[in-house]
Write a structure and sequence with these properties.
Blueprint: H1 2-56, H2 65-86, H3 98-122, H4 128-135, H5 138-148, H6 156-174, H7 181-206, H8 214-236, H9 238-241, H10 248-271, H11 274-295, H12 303-322
Amino acid sequence: MAKSFADLRPKRLLTLMADRNQIRSFLKDEHVTYASILLYITLSSGQIFFNKWVLSSKEINFPYPLGLTLLHMSFSSVLCFLLTKVFKVMKVEEGMTLEIYVTSVIPIGAMFAMTLWLGNTAYLYITVAFSQMLKAIMPVAVFILGVCVGLEIMSCKMLLIMSVISCGVLVSSYGELNINWIGVVYQMGGIVSEALRLILMEILVKRKGIKLNPLSLMYYMSPCSAICLFIPWIFLEKSKMETWNFHVLVLSLNSLCTFALNLSVFLVISQTSALTIRIAGVVKDWLVVLVSALLFAETKLTIINLFGYAIAIAGVAAYNNHKPKNGERITLVSQSPTNSDKKPSGPL
């Protein structure tokens, strides 16, 4: 009997050690997950304020949203090439053909460029907080377009959720003290463009069977977006920017932050799921609205603003809960204040 107890002690000790290692591994994974989510929220929120400061501050005074977006896409194209082809830190996923590139990637890149351009332009006319409130209408735009192309099915529950979101956005807009309709048109245009991009992404994944991580998507899409932005930039902003004193350090840092934001989306998705990105996006939106009221004197929140936005966010939360929770959508968060949740819709 004594011998049997003696034999059990080493086995029990090994079991306890294995359990402790599992617990340590679990806690380590949990810490990495929470750290990646916190990094995404910080970068996404910070990038919104950074872009707003670059576009409208007296210190930088760079009122060229098209030029800023073009710089972001060019910077992203160069960095993606360096990371994947020169330093080979990450590998570009295979499966891309010329037909898919022409019929899917180029349209997605064009919509992405339009989203960033219009969203950045809106910040010249409306406040950061009001822009975030308008962005809550995004699920409605995505759902309507999804129904039109057969990706979504109309149901009473989804119709109720969309109605709640729309009602909340209307109430928050009604409470805006200094509404600028030019800025609203630009922001809504950016929302529609982003919704089209997400629909095209879902078609690419579901109907054509191409699955790309955010870095691979950036590698293929950034050059297309840069070309789509370069053509209108020549006619709209090139002559104006020739007389501007170029702040190389500030704009380079701004572009680097936008690239880091997309990498943080990849990190969060690899640790969790696309649903987590959407939920983190809701938290980030509230944070941006509240912080913007403290940072910018032009931002004046009213009770009606906050009440309407709370209704819209409740609808967005219901939408996120209703959608499948297996991270079926592969999306890329916009590198601008217009698309924070999507992003990687969406995400981000």
